[in-house]
């Protein structure tokens, strides 16, 4: 397992190359078949979501753009990165895009569903961040509205070190320059965070850049508890095929990943893999006297 590197600088003193340069993000994490957006649409349809969707941590806007263009939904995207939002407006037009913090935003109206894809939710690191996020989601959903999320699975790391054992090297070529990244992951057990140090070096002679990121490691039962606390019923929570599993979800495996049958509420499901897939419904407020 990697030895724990020097702690990262405080939040805000570093930036993320892939978030700052969205065209590199799409190059590094291609999704040519729009699998993430198609998976999200399948979940929305399977659970009868209405047309108005909010994509939190929408990144480059490619999922929001697809949902607008192909699925005909009315989509709003929100992301804290001005560069991501500028890219989304230019390259994936149609949705309304806003720069904002998912823990502290107010948008007009309410939505039928909120999406939080590719671990965007795990950028809420503390319990207070998560409470703030779920409070914002609740405030922006119509009663009966859906939360559809897809993220790393904290439980995957129980007894496994395969993602932690050795640095990972990757490279991308953009505009004639090859950028090589060296990624080290380690677990900050007290904060329950998966931390990442990534160094980028280009073959253009520019000085290397070191960047730090972290994701909250959420466990399935912890997520269920948080959701229940904030008034949600979990409809599906599992590690079955999704947009970033290997093999990935395809249209033929249906809404819940096994046949066409959606998960049965309350049925225990497998959560052993490295991705968790969540569908939850905001329960209407209980009537007075009931
Ligand atoms: C891994 S990317 C996922 C982007 C997109 N959902 C996708 O699936 O391609 C995470 C995104 O969350 C955004 N983000 C991180 N913290 C945020 C926050 N507090 N509020 C809003 N967006 C945030 C980042 O700027 C980044 O675009």
Give a short synopsis of this structure.
The protein has 290 residues and is an alpha/beta fold.
The counted number of beta strands is: 11
Ligand catalogue: S-adenosylmethionine
> Can you give the mean pLDDT?
89
Find the CATH topology of the largest domain. Answer: Rossmann fold
- Topology pattern, helix = H, strand = E: HHHEHEHEEHEEEEEHEE
Structural domains: how many:
2
CATH class division of the largest domain: Alpha Beta
Major β-sheet annotation: 7 strands, mixed
Would you identify the CATH architecture of the largest domain? 3-Layer(aba) Sandwich
The gyration radius over C-alpha positions equals 19 Å
Low-confidence stretches: 1-14, 257-262
The helix-and-strand class reads alpha/beta
**Fraction of residues in helices?**
10-25%
Task: For the largest sheet, list the strands in their spatial order.
Answer: 3-2-1-4-5-11-10
Chain oligomer state: single chain
How many DSSP helices?
7
